[in-house]
Design brief:
The chain is an alpha/beta fold. Helix content is about 40%, strand content about 15%. The radius of gyration is 19 Å and the shape is globular.
Length: about 300
């Protein structure tokens, strides 16, 4: 059985829990091994992942490449300038052709509908490496990081500061599926998609929006932010000015729970959404978070290709 992973809800609570357990177990089993060594069971031996990059990346590219290599498989990397998709071939045709060559497809693109269409027409699993709407693989790594350091997601309060973007959408979705509350502090005009909030609340999610950053930070266990100016966006002075009250600094962290963790999916714009003292401070887990992209995506690949669950 194969399955696509476009949004977290595709896996549901049981699937997400299974993948998080698998990611943590596989990470533990690899301790001390060279990065390039294949896992002892090589569960994806002989399988190939096609990776489509319409939007550049460091972490997504390297972590997916190493993930399938450690599972025994291999990758083909394509960007929009090197394939017919960038010159007008339809998503449906691209999906049908790639399905004849590879065992799974990962796409990183601005257009969420493109990922949905690719999954609709492909005969192999499609994984969302990032779209303008969601970033499920990043949040799998974030949740793995919290579990490793806290023991469980249960009872954790997450707090988001700044832009209501794709990363936040997946946190909101995760909170509603795995039962942790999410507080959001953002300026007027930069709120998350109301449809994402409504869907989460319909699932029973505890989602709170506020203009007051201190209120949202108070007692939170996980403090999260992201760059205010995403790749391809203009360095808008007006947006930066609106976001400044939501900068994660030492004073804001002091409002959080004493053992609160700081997460950021990187790359960071230091001095904008976060100050050096926080991102380099003792509560920051950004390097574990970045490493866990590799382990979480191994679990996603195994779930999509029917090796677990």
């Amino acid at each position: 059985m194969s399955r696509s992973f476009i949004d977290l809800a595709d896996a549901g609570t049981a699937g997400l829990t299974l993948m998080l357990d698998e990611a943590i177990a596989r990470k533990q089993a690899r301790k001390g091994l060279p990065k390039g060594r294949i896992d002892a069971d090589a569960p994806l031996a002989g399988q190939t992942l096609a990776m489509i990059f319409e939007k550049n990346s460091t972490r997504t590219r390297v972590s997916f490449d190493m993930a399938i290599r450690q599972l025994g498989g291999t990758t083909i990397v394509m960007d929009s300038g090197g394939m017919q998709l960038g010159r007008g071939e339809t998503i449906a045709d691209t999906a049908r052709v790639l399905s004849r060559y590879v065992d799974a497809i990962m796409i990183r693109t601005d257009d969420h509908q493109k990922a949905l269409d690719l999954a609709r027409y492909a005969d192999v699993p499609v994984i969302n490496g990032l779209t303008d709407q969601s970033h499920p693989c990043q949040i799998m790594a974030d949740m793995q990081t919290v579990i490793e350091h806290r023991g469980s997601l249960a009872g954790s309060r997450w707090a988001w500061f700044g832009d209501g973007n794709n990363v936040l959408h997946s946190i909101v979705e995760a909170g509603s599926l795995l039962g942790f509350p999410v507080g959001i502090a953002c300026p007027e005009g930069y709120e998350p998609d109301p449809a994402v909030i409504a869907a989460a609340r319909e699932r029973g999610g505890d989602i709170r929006l506020s203009r007051d950053a201190v209120d949202i930070a108070s007692g939170a266990d996980v403090i999260v932010t992201d760059t205010w100016i995403s790749m391809g966006q203009a360095h808008a002075e007006e947006k930066l000015k609106a976001m400044m009250p939501y900068q994660v600094d030492e004073a804001l962290m002091a409002r959080a729970a004493p053992e609160a963790m700081f997460l950021h999916c990187l790359p960071a714009h230091r001095g904008e959404e976060v100050v050096d003292a926080v991102i380099d401070g003792p509560q920051s887990l950004i390097w574990d978070e970045a490493e866990n992209r590799l382990h979480a995506q191994k679990a996603v690949l195994l779930w999509c290709l029917g090796k677990i669950g």
